[in-house]
Write a structure and sequence with these properties.
The protein has 7 helices and 16 strands. The chain is of the alpha+beta class. Strands 1, 3, 6, 10, 15 and 16 form a 6-stranded antiparallel beta sheet that branches. A 4-stranded antiparallel beta sheet has the order 4-5-2-14, with no helix packed on it.
């Protein structure tokens, strides 16, 4: 069953002294893709500026903007109304020999290699072999997400936004970003092209229409096994009606909701406020 979800996402920075200029990118506009349709989307920026919108290499909508007046606070408020769809059935998928072929290896080279937050870990090779044994690529990918879900413990504050997959795995705990990164490391060790997905997960499976709920940014992964398969290693919930997709990339470095550079005193990220409302 499809849902209509309204999202209100407020984020930004506060500065100890006026900043003379800042150059920023926001990845906060949900795309219309297979299984998701964006009905409305708006971005309000304070100080007021007009952003330049483009689509990046990974297919994410980016709003780029500069602020050239002294300011002590930068606030970005993104609002959207998105129609989602129920989880797609898992495909029969390709074979291991298909995945090992030069066409697939070349097409998905960037999603098979190590990346900024997902370094190569030799320790995962043996685990990857055990997941492949007697499994199709689709089955092995799903088993990888289940293995991470059982291996890591969800704990806020145990990691930070710059924690790598190797550090999170060594700690044995983390948040959804860490679950996604460690899953990517294992999927790539298995031999499956895999990408990071950022967005939102409505936390209430039986939410009433019109009910406003405090939400959070969320992360999950997609792996390719003849077609893209989405898995949520943090919750193991089917990726479907309650998930709103924002951005895709190799890891978190490619999908940061708000990033940029500035001229002036060091900024303090004043946090994120997310509200989600089921409207249908």
């Amino acid at each position: 069953m499809s849902w209509r979800i309204a999202v209100r996402h407020r984020t930004g920075y506060r500065y100890t002294e006026p900043v003379r200029a800042s150059y920023n990118e926001a990845r906060l506009t949900p795309p219309s893709i297979d299984g998701q349709r964006t009905l409305q989307a708006a971005l309000a920026i304070t100080p007021a500026v007009r952003p330049l919108r483009y689509v990046d290499y990974w297919g994410t909508t980016v709003d780029a903007f500069d602020v050239h007046v002294p300011h002590t606070e930068l606030v970005v408020l993104a609002t959207s109304l998105v129609e989602t769809a129920q989880a797609r059935p898992k495909p029969v998928g390709a074979s291991w020999s298909d995945l090992a072929g030069p066409a697939v290896q070349d097409r998905f080279a960037e999603l098979l290699a190590a990346s900024s937050y997902v370094p190569a870990e030799p320790e995962l090779t043996e685990i990857g072999r055990s997941l492949r044994a007697g499994s199709t690529p689709v089955q092995a990918g799903l088993r990888a997400a289940e293995w991470i879900h059982k291996t890591l413990r969800y704990e806020r504050g145990a990691t930070h936004v710059r924690t790598s997959s190797a550090e999170a795995r060594a700690a044995g705990k983390g948040v959804c970003q860490d679950f996604a990164h460690v899953t990517l490391a294992l999927l790539r060790a298995v031999g499956l092209p895999a990408r990071y997905v950022s967005g939102y997960l409505h936390p209430v499976a039986d939410a009433e229409v019109g009910e406003v709920t405090a939400g959070e940014s969320h992360a999950w992964v997609e792996f390719w096994a003849g077609d893209w398969v989405a898995v949520d290693p943090t919750s193991l919930a089917d990726v479907g009606s309650r998930h709103v997709l924002l951005a895709r990339g190799r890891d978190y470095a490619d999908v940061r909701p708000l990033s940029g550079v500035y001229s002036g005193s060091a900024p303090e990220h004043f946090g994120v406020t997310v509200e989600v409302t089921r409207l249908g």
